[in-house]
C-alpha cells in the first residue's frame, strides 16, 4: 500500500515537473517571438526614420534652392525696378520738355534755337514761343539816349540773325518794334526830339544789324512806339523794364508778293539833323 502511494506520488511529481517545463518553454517562445517582432518593428522604424531624414534633407535642399532662386529673382526685380524708375524719370523729363514747348507760329526747330539762345542771356533776352516774340532789354543793347548797338548786343543780334536766316525761319516776316520809358531824351534831344524818334531809331539799328548778316530786307517791318506801350507803370526815375526792343516773327501771307512799282514817283529830300554822340 505504502509502495503504491510512493509510486503514485512520484508519478504526480514527474507530471508536475513536466507541466512546469512546458510552461517555461511556451513563455520563452512567446518572448522570443515578441522580441523578433520588436526587432523587425525597430528595423522598419529605423528605415522609416532614415527615409524621413533623407526626405527632410531633400526638402531642405529644395528650400535652400528656392531661397536662392527667390534671392536671384529679387535681385532681378531690383534691377528692373531701378531701370523702370530711370525710364519713368526720363519720361517725366520728356513730358516736362514737351509741356514746356508752346506751339506757336514758329517751327519747332526755330523755337528751340531761340529758347536755347535766350537761356544764355537770361537778363537781356527773352523769348515767347506762343507769340513768336523776341525781346531785348534796351539797357543791354543801347546806351542811354542812344540808338547805336553796344558790342555785346551786336554779338547777340548776330546770333539771332543766324537763326532767322535758316530755311525753316525764312518764310517769316520780321517786325522790329522799339519802346522806351517816359523819360524824354536830353543829351540826344537834337537827334531824337521825342521817344518816338528814339524808339524807331533803335528798332532800325536792330533791323540793319540783322540785314548785315544776310537777312533779306524785304522781310522787315519797323516801328517805334515810344513810351506809349509800357509793360509796367513808368516810374519817375526811369523804368528799365519798358526800355526794350521786340522782334515779332509773323508768317508771310501766301498771296503776298512784293513788286516794284512800274510808275515813276516824285521823291522828296529830307534834311537829317545829326548830333554828335555824347
What labels describe this entry?
single chain, 278 residues, alpha+beta, 60s Ribosomal Protein L30, Chain: A, 2 domains, five-stranded mixed sheet, 5 strands, 53% helix, rod-shaped, disordered C terminus
Descriptive overview:
This protein has 278 residues and is α+β, with helices and mostly antiparallel strands. The radius of gyration is 54 Å and the shape is rod-shaped. The chain has a five-stranded mixed β-sheet. Helix content is 53%, strand content 11%. The chain is built from five helices and five strands. It has two domains: 1-100; 108-251, 60s Ribosomal Protein L30, Chain: A, CATH 3.30.1330.60. Helix 4 packs across helix 5 (195-212). Strand 3, helix 5 (195-212) and strand 4 (220-224) form a beta-alpha-beta unit.
Overall tally of structural domains: 2
**Helix amount:** 40-55%
Rg from C-alpha positions? 54 Å
Average pLDDT for all residues:
81
Quaternary organisation = single chain
Largest sheet: 5 strands, mixed
Number of contiguous helices: 5
Q: What is the class of the largest domain in the CATH system?
A: Alpha Beta
> Would you tell me which CATH topology of the largest domain applies?
60s Ribosomal Protein L30, Chain: A
The best one-word shape is rod-shaped
Biggest sheet strand line-up: 1-2-5-3-4
Strand content: 5-15%
Query: Roughly how many Å apart are the termini?
Result: 181 Å
Give the full name of the CATH homologous superfamily of the largest domain: OmpA-like domain
- The number of E-state strands comes to 5
Which structural class is indicated by helix and strand composition? Answer: alpha+beta
Amino acid at each position: 500500500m505504502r509502495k503504491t502511494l510512493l509510486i503514485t506520488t512520484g508519478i504526480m511529481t514527474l507530471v508536475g515537473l513536466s507541466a512546469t517545463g512546458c510552461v517555461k518553454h511556451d513563455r520563452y517562445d512567446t518572448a522570443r517571438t515578441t522580441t523578433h517582432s520588436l526587432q523587425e518593428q525597430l528595423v522598419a522604424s529605423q528605415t522609416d526614420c532614415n527615409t524621413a531624414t533623407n526626405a527632410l534633407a531633400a526638402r531642405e535642399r529644395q528650400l535652400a534652392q528656392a531661397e536662392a532662386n527667390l534671392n536671384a529673382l529679387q535681385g532681378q526685380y531690383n534691377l528692373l525696378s531701378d531701370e523702370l524708375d530711370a525710364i519713368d524719370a526720363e519720361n517725366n523729363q520728356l513730358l516736362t520738355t514737351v509741356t514746356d514747348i508752346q506751339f506757336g507760329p514758329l517751327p519747332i526747330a526755330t523755337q528751340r534755337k531761340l529758347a536755347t539762345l535766350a537761356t544764355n542771356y537770361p537778363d537781356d533776352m527773352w523769348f515767347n514761343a506762343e507769340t513768336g516774340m523776341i525781346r531785348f532789354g534796351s539797357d543791354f543793347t543801347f546806351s542811354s539816349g542812344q540808338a547805336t548797338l553796344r558790342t555785346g548786343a551786336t554779338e547777340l543780334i548776330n546770333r539771332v540773325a543766324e537763326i532767322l536766316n535758316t530755311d525753316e525761319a525764312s518764310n517769316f516776316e520780321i517786325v522790329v518794334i522799339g519802346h522806351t520809358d517816359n523819360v524824354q531824351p536830353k543829351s540826344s534831344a537834337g537827334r531824337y526830339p521825342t521817344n518816338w524818334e528814339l524808339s524807331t531809331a533803335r528798332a532800325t539799328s536792330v533791323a540793319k544789324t540783322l540785314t548785315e548778316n544776310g537777312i533779306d530786307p524785304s522781310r522787315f517791318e519797323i516801328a517805334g512806339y515810344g513810351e506809349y506801350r509800357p509793360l509796367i507803370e513808368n516810374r519817375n526815375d526811369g523804368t528799365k523794364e519798358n526800355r526794350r526792343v521786340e522782334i515779332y516773327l509773323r508768317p508771310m501771307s501766301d498771296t503776298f508778293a512784293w513788286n516794284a512799282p512800274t510808275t515813276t514817283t516824285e521823291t522828296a529830300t529830307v534834311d537829317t539833323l545829326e548830333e554828335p554822340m555824347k
